[in-house]
Amino acid sequence: MTAVDERAVAEFFEGFEPPDGLKVELLRGEIVMMASPDLVHNLIVSDVQDQVPRRHWARMQTQDVDIVDEASEPVPDLVVVAPEILPASGRLLPAGLVTMVVEVVSKTSVERDYSVKRSIYAAGGIPVYLIVDPIMAQCVLLTRPEGEGERADYKGQVKRKFGETLMIDALGVELDTSAFGTLPDVKPHRYPLP
């Protein structure tokens, strides 16, 4: 896609009003719409949010994030930022302010969460990307972003099964995953790739 095409899509996206019940994101110039999430998804997001101490961190659900030099405005399931650096207002939160993003995998978001968003969040320099996967009953913690554009990636990766704790050093939080639910009758996948 050319820069002109990306600008036109970004301008259209800024004024787009999605139908009720749909989540909409701009990912590398592509507008992606998703149905409202499953109850399991929402409970996991709430559980992770509850474990990140409010006195130290601003925890926001469905906050648009601005990735510099990308035609992307992802909407993570949870965004964690130091409260003292939050802007006073605005729809887009600059990626440079974000400490951690969380995505909870759904039946239709596996490849997007494990691959496309992994690259986008790394390109944005977001220090921590947590993928919570109720299909495979696992969490994948990605750290140390490197690179630019589609070649950006995280160099650090830790995987834990639900029921195990996961230390998130950047937040000083030991995440308890024992209450995370799973999605029944969903075909297993192969992510994360080694």
For this entry, give a set of tags.
6-stranded mixed beta sheet; 194 residues; single chain; tt1808, chain A; globular; two-stranded antiparallel ribbon
Mind explaining what this structure looks like?
This protein is of the alpha+beta class and 194 residues long. The chain has one domain (37-176): tt1808, chain A. 21% of the residues lie in helices and 33% in strands. The two termini are 29 Å apart.
Topology:
Elements: H1 3-15, E1 22-27, E2 30-35, H2 39-51, E3 58-60, E4 64-66, E5 78-81, E6 92-94, E7 98-104, H3 110-123, E8 128-133, E9 138-146, E10 153-161, E11 165-168, E12 173-176
Parallel strand pairs: 4-6, 7-8
Antiparallel strand pairs: 1-2, 3-5, 5-7, 8-9, 9-10, 11-12
In short:
InterPro entries: Nuclease_put_TT1808, Restrct_endonuc-II-like, Uma2. This protein has a single domain, classed as tt1808, chain A (Alpha-Beta Complex). The strands form four sheets. A six-stranded mixed β-sheet has the order 3-5-7-8-9-10. A two-stranded antiparallel ribbon has the order 1-2.
